[in-house]
Amino acid sequence: MRPRLTTRTVALCQSQDTVSSELAKDPSIAPQQIANKIFGERETTGKPTSLADDTLETASEEDLQQALSCGRWGPTKPGELFARAFHDVLCCLEADPLSGVVSPSLIGSYGTMPLSIIAPLVDLVRHMANVIVRARKEVLFATCSWSPSDAVDLVSDALRELSRRAGERGERIVVKIIYDKASLKQVFHNHQKLDPDFYSGEKVKLPHPNDIPNIDMEVSSLHVPPLGTLHSKFMVVDRKIAIVESNNMEDNPNMEMSTHLEGPIVDSLYDSFLITWAEKMTPPLPTHNTPAHVGGFGALHSEPVAPTTGIDKPQYPTETDPRSQQQIANEGTTFNRNLTPLSPGNPHYDDDIPGEISRMQAMYSSQHGESRVQAINNHLNKTSKSDAKPSISDIQSGDEFTPYIAHANDLVPMALVSRRPHGPMSNSDAFVPQNEAFLSLIRNAKSSIFIQTPDLNATHLLAAITAAVKRGIEVTYYVCLGYNDPGEMMPGQGGTNETFCAKLYKDLTLQERSRLNVHWYTGKDQSKPIAHSFKQRTCHVKILIADGHVGIQGSGNQDTQSWYHSQEVNVMIDSEAICSKWREGIERNQNTFHYGKGSQEDGVWRDEKGHQVEGATPKSAPPISWVKGAIGMGKKLKDKGGF
After folding, report:
1. Three-state DSSP class for residue 504
2. Residues 484, 500: Cα–Cα separation, whole Å
3. In the Cβ-directed half-sphere of 2, how many Cα atoms lie within 13 Å?
4. Of residues 118 and 624, which shows the higher confidence score?
5. Average of pLDDT values for 73-96?
6. Is the separation of the CB atoms in 259 and 571 below 8 Å?
7. Can you give the residue ranges of the PLD phosphodiesterase domain (predicted)?
8. pLDDT tens string 197-228
9. What is the pLDDT of residue 490?
10. What does the mean pLDDT of the chain come to?
């Protein structure tokens, strides 16, 4: 039987009491103390609502209306598919009201998304840096892996510039940074504050307090041993802007994705940060009593004080920026092509999003007579610190790489669909908002499911995807070849991508297999996938789109670690316009659709001679695979990009 929304859950969702609202009354209290007072201690969660059981009862119209009454939708109106997923998400809260890492009444909300980014890691961080320097009160940032890199240098430079600007205004800024750092201390206390001498040292390379005199910064780490990783990646600035992203803070060859959010949904992410931080904040947050839902919007407003350090200024439309991808590409080859990029040690900040888009597109445009593919190859090699040679002749006009995707500033329904960290080795912590959102969209889609993720092997997806294909849904998913394969081969970790997709195809008839399309990530300058072990072209995007209009984007992979152990933060939206631009950006910025299609027999990629990609992990039965996995599991927990 389907779990129902209980009276208790509905009351929690309709209550005005949240962690952030209580903190506003007394900012000296630790958020964890507030959470325990309002919602009680954490309880054990159970199994997901279904293994795609055909007999599962569908939520009634009355059920859906009751669920929708639990959200704060403003002038927006969620559609049926979104409502069904939202209903199923709320059913998780009876066992643990904070299983979604946000106060229940803030799960359902609305907002705008003026910008999405699908690009190499460092290009996402360039936008983060621009948003940081424009901060007026506070910066809250949570991420997973952290190591000295171009990404860290960009953020550190931005903090120094932010301190300079704040000093010119006679103001102070509060900054809180938290990331995953497993240590023996976390066996006894999951949160550990980091000393300035440590976080300003060679292992972290953030600025020392002496270098940012107008910023009050705290840095903390979180890990729930052994497997409860802080895998969330998001930033909240001035309680007006939030960025939800897929990337870690390191150098790697990953293609990544992020979204820039504004409006009331920012209050939800602010609340999530408080719950994630958990400890008392010293000093308190300046915006503790100024929620986003009363503060308006303003992504495209210029920063009025201490403008960009660079002397060159991009040309762009001055109004809201819903430029098409082709317009952006065309402008990158004309008057904006010589804009100096924002780089570590060479700051060229922009005053608003349209300016950022123009400067970024210039980096992808041909220079000095080079071809389009040469320009892309040079940029991808620079960002990945590799020397891969292009294997396609060129990129056609109309198919240019466009990393920054502008959206109209329309209000759309949004919801946070996340999960808390779970340390124990068992995969029992499954009945959580993130997983239910994924399962519900797959279960209730009427035409199509699209997924991109590094790995897809979570146990509950096998039956869910199989059932969707059997009932006539076209399922397409893009995965990365060889991503963390040794770790995925451990017992309980789900197996490699090749192993999992072979199981899917095995359960389908020949006719049904035509509706399951597995593709392997192929870089924009390549004609075939490159195995992850070469560290040249890999993909770390995490996205699911159902029926072309409901999408989930964030930090959550479709693998065992993200489904059952890591803390994740994802946003679900209901917008055909945004989902359409996401798909366009995904196809423009990689060649996975054109060159990465796997076999309709078992999903595995092979060339015209039947050969797999060099470096592909060969099949190996236990115990050989377990030995490889034992080595790989340690690598997955430690290495850069491991999560």
Report:
1. helix
2. 14
3. 20
4. 118
5. 97
6. yes
7. 226-253
8. 999 999 999 999 999 999 999 999 999 999 99
9. 66
10. 90
544 has which bridge partners? 451, 552
Q: Kindly tell me if the per-residue pLDDT of 491 is higher than 90.
A: no
pLDDT of residue 259: 99
Residues 577-618 have pLDDT tens digits of 999 999 999 999 999 999 999 999 999 999 999 999 999 987
Neighbours of 579 (CB within 10 A): 21
Which residue reads 């040249």 in tokens? 536
Contact assessment for residue 404 and residue 361, using Cβ atoms and an 8 Å cutoff: yes
- Buried/exposed 414-432: b ≥16 CB within 10 Å, e otherwise: bbbbbbbbbbeeebebbbb
Fill in the DSSP letter of residue 548.
T
- Give me the sign of the Cα torsion angle 100, 104, 110, 111: negative
**What percentage of the chain reaches a pLDDT higher than 70?**
87
- Please, what is the Cα angle at 466 between 464 and 468, to 5 degrees? 70
Percent of all residues in the chain with a pLDDT value above 90, rounded to a whole number:
81
Burial of 506 from C-beta contacts in 10 A (0-12 / 13-18 / 19+)? exposed
CA-CA distance, 398 to 214, in Å (whole number)?
A: 46
Whether a cis peptide bond, with omega within 30° of 0, leads into 209 is: no
DSSP letters, 286-343, are TTTT--GGGT---TTSPP-SS--SSS------SS-----HHHHHHHHTTTTTTPPPPB
Task: Quote the DSSP letter at residue 280.
Answer: P
* DSSP of 386-409: --PPP-SS---TT-----EEE---
Neighbour count for residue 49 (Cβ, 10 Å): 21
Buried b (16+ CB within 10 A) or exposed e, 61-94: eebbebbbebbbbeebebeebbbbbbbbbbbbbb
Mean pLDDT, rounded, for 75-95: 97
CA-based nearest residue to 598, from 460, 491, 477: 477
SS3 9: helix
- Other CB atoms closer than 10 Å to residue 510's CB: what's the count? 9
Write down the residue that tokens 């979180």 correspond to.
222
* Residue carrying structure tokens 């009160």: 137
Least confident stretch, 156-160, 459-463, 490-494, 584-588: 490-494
Q: Does residue 498 surpass a pLDDT of 80?
A: yes
Q: What angle in degrees, to the nearest 10, is found between the helix axes of 353-363 and 121-133?
A: 150
Q: How far apart are CA 489 and CA 484, in angstroms?
A: 9
Tell me: pLDDT of 19 over 80.
yes
Closest to 333 (Cα-Cα) out of 301, 376, 299, 294: 376
* Location of structure tokens 């009444």: 105
Sequence-separated (6 or more) residues with CB below 8 Å from residue 189? none
Amino acid identity for residue 228 in this structure: G
pTM value? 0.93
Contact criterion met (CB below 8 Å) for 279 and 191: yes
Q: How far is 476 from 462, CA to CA, in rounded Å? A: 14
